UniProtKB/TrEMBL annotation:
Binds 1 FAD per subunit. The lineage of its organism: Bacteria, Bacillati, Actinomycetota, Actinomycetes, Micrococcales. NAD(+) binds at G192, G193, G194, V195, V196, G197, S198, E199, G279. Its cofactor is FAD. This is Dihydrolipoamide dehydrogenase.
C-alpha cells in the first residue's frame, strides 16, 4: 500500500485470499475477521474509508441530535431549567458534527486498516468474472484483483427517490445532504415517516426550523403503533406540521426558489428544501453482478452464513442483503461472514446451526434498534402484530413508564410506555418496545433476554436497581404473575 493509502502502487493484477468491496463498518469487520483468520485480504472503496455510517448517517446524525435531547432533558428538571437560557446554537451543532466526521477526512480510518494488516485499493470495484474484481481509479486506471477463496460485497444502500413528477428536478435532499449540510435551511419538508424522516424532523424542529412531515402511513410504521403516535405528538407539540394519510403528487420550484409540494388532498406545502426519506435501494447497480449470473441493482439473496445463493464464493454482508438495514446488524453479520470464510478456506468445521458462530440467526428474531427521536424509541424482536403473524400465542404486557420511581428522577414530567411480548407456549420474552427519554439504555437487557430465551421464572431473580427506569422489568413480571 502507498503511504497515503490511495493504491497498491502500479500494477495490473494481484491475488489475495479474500476481496472485500466496500470499506464501511461492515466491510471493515469482514476484512478484520478474515485477516485474523490468517487470510490475505484487500478492501476496495470508491469513497471514504468508514463508509455511510461514519460520514453521512449514524455518526453525524446522532452528533447533531444530541444537543437537542440534552436541552430538553435539562428543561424538564427543576433547579437545572433556570440555568439554561436561549435556544440551540445551530452553528455550534454543525461544528460538533464536523469533529465527529473528522471534516470528512478518512486518514485515521486508513491508518486503522494499515495497522490491521488490510490492504486498500481506492476506486470503483466491479465483478468481472469468477472471484475477480476490476477496480477503476479516479484517473481511469484499472487494477485487477483475484481472490483465491471469496469475494464479499459490502457496498451498502442508498436513498430511494420515488417516482413523483418534478421531484428530481427540484434537487431534493437525501439523508446525506441533511447530515452533511453546511447551513441550516429556512424551512424543511420531509417526505417519509420512517427512522430517517422521524429523526431528521426531530433534529430540525429542535433547531427552530419550520418542519412539515408528509407521511402517508404515519410515523415509524415498523414498530408498535404507540411509538409513532408518541413521536408525532411530540413533533406537533414542538411546532412541526405532521400530515398523515396523504402523499405528494408533484413537486416544483416557484419563482422565489422555494419548493412547492402538491399533496393528494389538494393542499400545498412550501419549503426551502425537501428531504426524501422513503426507503433504501441496494448499491448493486454498477457492481458487475451480471458477470456472475445475478441481476444488477437487486438485493442479494443470502443464506444464514451470508453466502449468496447459487454463487459459492460470493458473500453479501450488510444492507445489500436486505436482512436488517442497521449498522450494528451489518457488523454482526460481518463477524459471522469473515469467520466462516476463514473456516471454509481452511476446510474447517462450519458452525451453521441456529445461534452458531458462523450464522446470523439474530436477523430473524432479535434485531435491536434505537430511534433517536423525542421521545426516544427502542425496540427488539417481535411487535404484537408480527408475533401474531408468526403464529405465536402471545401475551402483551403494557406499562406506563412514568409510574416507575426512577422516571421521576430523570425528568419532572416523564412520559413513556413499555411493552413486552411473551410467548405463552415457551414462557419467554420474544419482543420489547420502550418509548421515553433515555430508553435506549434499557434495550440491551431485553436483547439478552430474547437471544438467551431466559424463562420468565428466571427473570424474577434478575433484580432491577432502585430507583431506575429498569424497574419496569419488575412491573412487567408482576403483571404477568408467577
Amino acid at each position: 500500500m502507498s503511504p497515503d493509502g490511495d493504491t497498491l502502487g502500479p500494477m495490473t493484477a494481484r491475488e489475495y485470499d479474500v476481496i472485500v468491496i466496500g470499506a464501511g463498518p461492515v466491510g471493515e469487520n469482514v476484512a478484520d475477521r478474515t485477516v485474523q483468520g490468517g487470510l490475505s485480504t484487500v478492501i476496495v472503496e470508491s469513497e471514504l474509508v468508514g463508509g455511510e455510517c461514519s460520514y453521512w448517517a449514524c455518526i453525524p446524525s446522532k452528533a447533531m441530535l444530541r444537543p437537542g435531547a440534552a436541552l430538553r432533558a435539562v428543561r424538564d428538571v427543576q433547579g437545572a431549567a433556570s440555568a439554561v437560557t436561549g435556544e440551540l446554537d445551530a452553528a455550534a451543532v454543525l461544528a460538533r458534527r464536523d469533529t465527529f466526521v473528522h471534516d470528512w477526512d478518512d486518514t485515521s480510518q486508513v491508518e486503522w486498516l494499515q495497522g490491521a494488516g488490510i490492504d486498500l485499493v481506492r476506486g470503483h470495484g466491479r465483478l468481472t468474472g469468477e472471484r475477480e474484481v476490476t477496480v477503476t481509479g479516479q484517473d481511469g486506471a484499472e487494477t485487477v484483483l483475484r481472490a483465491r477463496h471469496a469475494v464479499a460485497v459490502s457496498t451498502g444502500s442508498a436513498a430511494l427517490l420515488p417516482d413523483i413528477p418534478g421531484l428530481r428536478e427540484v434537487q431534493p435532499w437525501t439523508s446525506r445532504e441533511a447530515t452533511g449540510m453546511r447551513e441550516v435551511p429556512a424551512s424543511l419538508a420531509i417526505l417519509g415517516g420512517g427512522v430517517v424522516g422521524s429523526e431528521m424532523a426531530t433534529l430540525f424542529t429542535s433547531l427552530g426550523i419550520p418542519v412539515t412531515v408528509v407521511a402517508r402511513s404515519g410515523l415509524l410504521r415498523g414498530v408498535e403503533p404507540f411509538a409513532g403516535e408518541a413521536v408525532a405528538k411530540a413533533l406537533t407539540d414542538a411546532g412541526a406540521d405532521v400530515r398523515t394519510g396523504v402523499e405528494i403528487e408533484r413537486a416544483a420550484r416557484d419563482a422565489g426558489g422555494d419548493i412547492v409540494l402538491t399533496l393528494s388532498d389538494g393542499a400545498e406545502v412550501r419549503a426551502a428544501e425537501v428531504l426524501v426519506a422513503t426507503g433504501r435501494v441496494p448499491r448493486t447497480a454498477d457492481l458487475g453482478l451480471d458477470s456472475v449470473g445475478l441481476t444488477p441493482g437487486a438485493w442479494l439473496d443470502v443464506d444464514d452464513t451470508l453466502r449468496v445463493r447459487g454463487v459459492d464464493w460470493l458473500y453479501a454482508v450488510g444492507d445489500v442483503n436486505h436482512r436488517a438495514l442497521l449498522t450494528h446488524q451489518g457488523k454482526y453479520q460481518a463477524r459471522a461472514a469473515g469467520d466462516v470464510i476463514a473456516a471454509r478456506a481452511r476446510d474447517g468445521a462450519v458452525d451453521d446451526g441456529p445461534w452458531g458462530a458462523h450464522v446470523a440467526t439474530a436477523d430473524h428474531s432479535a434485531v435491536p434498534q434505537v430511534v433517536f427521536t423525542d421521545p426516544e424509541v427502542a425496540a427488539v424482536g417481535h411487535t404484537e402484530a408480527s408475533a401474531e403473524k408468526a403464529g405465536l400465542q402471545v401475551r402483551v404486557l403494557d406499562y406506563d413508564l412514568s409510574w416507575v420511581a426512577g422516571a421521576s428522577e430523570v425528568a419532572d414530567h416523564y412520559r413513556g410506555q413499555a411493552r413486552a411480548i411473551v410467548d405463552e407456549e415457551r414462557r419467554v420474552l420474544v419482543g420489547a418496545t420502550f418509548v421515553g427519554q433515555d430508553v435506549g439504555e434499557l434495550l440491551h437487557a431485553a436483547t439478552i433476554a430474547i437471544v438467551g430465551e431466559v424463562p420468565i421464572d428466571r427473570l424474577w431473580h434478575a433484580v432491577p436497581s432502585y430507583p431506575t427506569i429498569s424497574e419496569v422489568w419488575l412491573r412487567w413480571l408482576e403483571a404477568y404473575g408467577r
